[in-house]
Specification:
The structure is a homodimer.
Chain A: H1 13-30, H2 36-43, H3 47-59, E1 63-68, E2 78-82, E3 87-94, E4 98-104, E5 110-117, H4 123-138, E6 147-155, E7 166-169, E8 174-177, H5 179-183, E9 193-198, H6 199-209, E10 218-224, E11 228-234, E12 240-241, H7 278-285, H8 293-297, H9 304-327, E13 333-336, H10 344-357, E14 370-372, H11 379-394
Parallel strand pairs in A: 3-6, 6-9, 10-13, 13-14
Antiparallel strand pairs in A: 1-2, 3-4, 4-5, 7-8, 10-11, 11-12
Helix pairs in contact in A: 1-3, 2-3, 6-11, 9-10
Chain A binds a DNA duplex through residues 11-14, 16-17, 20, 35-37, 45-52, 55, 68, 71-78.
DNA sequence: CCACTTTGTTTGTTCTTTTTACTAACTGAA
DNA sequence: TTCAGTTAGTAAAAAGAACAAACAAAGTGG
């Protein structure tokens, strides 16, 4: 994705109006139930400006009016909410073990979802299947009859910044794939915003963007699956995903934790992925690729060999988390990915190391919250859908 | 520093005007010699709007008109430049071994500078001395009679985001110091913008901000001195420094490179600083704190023990650089700090490891440029001055 | 010398927010 | 019940900023 404006930012009157409409919509999205007066106070705009902006957003179906609020000695305000009936956002994740699809509302509520197992195959075959599944999803009852705002795809590898190219997906065996171009012929009638992004970055974005109430200043999502990657999203106002000049930001699986350690598939030695990742655990325990790693391991958790392997991986994960803390210091860390299903034997050593060491430097009790996701299945797909919405609200298009 | 606006961003007409004035000024700053027509084309504004904005910036002394440009078949445009005669920016770095002060123009040209050696002492004594030196600097010939826009201070430790508190400076023995408050009584007549930031972050900012021509999308400055820290600045439009929720972003000296390794002063084991930093080199070679590390080592570079120590430190530095590449992927890395004076024995292993491994993952020839600073003496101080200018141009104040 | 091109300014228009005044709707006390 | 006080939202005129178009200025090139 990325709506980077390389040129220097100046603005005309149209830009200003759009900015204010975006601000109003974002405020209502993040704090459902705000009144016009609340918005005017928070945004430092006059009641008249807010009133006009709200009116046009109501007319276009982005907002709806709710109930009257309790009065505090004067005329009660009218609550404003997102109109969640009219639009739908599509998101999909192409994972190593399958496809995950979601259709969700403007607030991120999942209307329909689908999880299709799939062994790695060519981009073309994957795109065709995904196209069919998305087509089917769009015709399910709760999705049908809604206007689709666009489609976001999350992919397991670095994306070229500025152009929709998946540079590399080692666990799929893909390289330099323009996945949207492959998908488009299978969904000729789906218009709106199309975008693609790295899986962990989409997940990070969605975890921050679809949250209501107090929004953290930044959030880092760590995705531990076949490989290990991360996404950092920053800025409570307009959340931006850090991509890096080659899209390599967040490739923490290839940060070196053990100089002179095992060889990684990237050719370097001692990468984090050689210590903690689906494939390193497989390698350590001799589990074949055909078997589902998690399903194979869950019944074997009592075995000492498994426990030792997972504890070592967990310790490496803890170091990885601490290193992220000391190099980027996110407001919050969210840990997801399929490996989280392995539970305590993997996670306890990681969490313990992180908690133990994160406050050493400053010596204050203030802790950075680290949350382990309960069910990571649709997080990246939902995050990609969130990115679609954000690019419409903040992007250059005049869709609203 | 940090002019973070927590609230949601909307704007009025005044804001729009200011935005456009900022854009014009920034464009001229970054590309000296632009004409009004160039600006109008690049910024997507009309000639009339640009003309009015330029006129007011000329009247206020921020810009000056230069020579006529070569005609390309029509009326030649009038080149615009920053007016560097009127203002001065002050910057200072409080380092472990002394104070560095600069006074520079809007374009970052150093008008006067001073380097004062000083053994670590209390914040109060340091502030008093710095106040005197700054006072003297302001009365040097090239600085005198200029209007001072403000003062930026770079400090060797993490700063609380949002408030001007140095949380910790282990190598000075300071903790929770409101340094600006200590300094202010000694410079009662210096008004303008006062700010403080971490030394590596100031340096990173200055390295990007005072560059003209093509600006990298992001830049990471790695400062290798008594400790080791980094600063990441992103956004070619409005460059922002990543700080993190506790100001710990960039504390790469405490990322763990060697699990179970040596104990660090932070209490954890295997931190990067135990492998590469001024203090770890001292420890490895038994050099007392009273001696100047670099001056002591330079005559001893032929000794095998020194060579081995520096090579090992260099290898760790290379890993650190590669880890930054794979976790944040800056457009450019700049390596500075006093240790760079040790030259090839330290730097060659680092650069070699980095060049060798940075393209493994994507397999493309595209390299991220890594530049070693020739003279890092005033880089952080000058960067702090740059931050003053940026906070005036982009910040909330109405100074221009 | 003249047609043509490009720069920069002037003038009046358009667009957006602001100001001010007003209506609406509720609280609480007389 | 009434009425002063308070807060929410709207309407119309006013102000401010950018815009469009015409124009003046200053070159080029035949």
């Amino acid at each position: 994705m990325s709506h980077r404006n390389q040129q220097h930012k100046a603005g005309d009157l149209h830009f200003l109006k759009r900015l204010n409409r975006s601000a109003i919509l974002e405020m209502v999205r993040r704090t459902p139930g705000l009144t016009r007066a609340d918005i005017a106070a928070q945004a430092q705009l006059t009641k008249a400006t807010v009133g006009a902006g709200v009116q046009s957003l109501l007319n276009q179906g982005w907002l709806r009016e709710g109930e009257l609020q309790k009065s505090s000695g004067g005329r009660p305000g009218r609550a404003l909410h997102l109109n969640e009936e009219q639009h739908v956002l599509l998101g999909a994740e192409v994972g190593v073990h399958g496809l995950r699809l979601v259709a969700c509302t403007l607030a991120g509520q999942v209307l329909a979802s689908h999880h299709e197992h799939l062994v790695p195959t060519t981009p073309e075959v994957t795109a065709e299947l995904l196209g069919k599944l998305l087509h089917a999803l769009m015709h399910e009852a709760p999705v049908k009859n809604r206007h689709c705002l666009g489609l976001g795809i999350a992919l397991p590898g670095p994306i070229s910044p500025g152009q929709p190219v998946l540079r590399l997906a080692p666990n799929l065996g893909w390289r330099d794939i323009r996945f949207l171009d492959l998908l488009r012929p299978h969904l000729p009638r789906l218009d709106g915003t199309w975008l693609m992004d790295n899986e962990a970055k989409s997940a990070a974005f969605g975890e921050l963007y679809f949250r209501t109430g107090t929004i953290p200043e930044s959030l880092m999502y760590v995705s531990a699956g076949t490989g290990i990657g991360s996404g950092m999203v920053e800025g409570s106002h307009l959340p931006l995903v850090a991509r890096g000049i080659q899209g390599l930001a967040g490739e923490i699986g290839h940060t070196v934790l053990q100089p002179g350690g095992l060889y990684c598939h990237c050719g370097n030695r001692g990468c984090a992925e050689t210590l903690v990742s689906g494939w390193s655990i497989r390698a350590a325990l001799g589990i074949a690729e055909e078997e589902d790693l998690i399903e194979t391991l869950l019944p074997r958790m009592h075995e000492p060999e498994v426990q030792v392997t997972l504890r070592r991986a967990g310790e490496a994960l803890g170091i990885l988390l601490l290193n992220l803390h000391h190099s980027q210091n996110p407001s919050e860390i969210v840990l997801g990915g399929s490996l989280t299903r392995l539970g305590a034997p993997l996670l306890d050593p990681a969490l313990h190391y992180f908690q133990e060491n994160q406050t050493r430097l400053l010596g204050t009790p203030q802790q950075v919250p680290l949350r382990v996701v309960e069910d990571a299945t649709f997080i990246a797909a939902r995050g990609a859908a969130a990115q679609v919405l954000a690019s419409i609200i903040h992007g250059p298009s005049d869709l609203f």
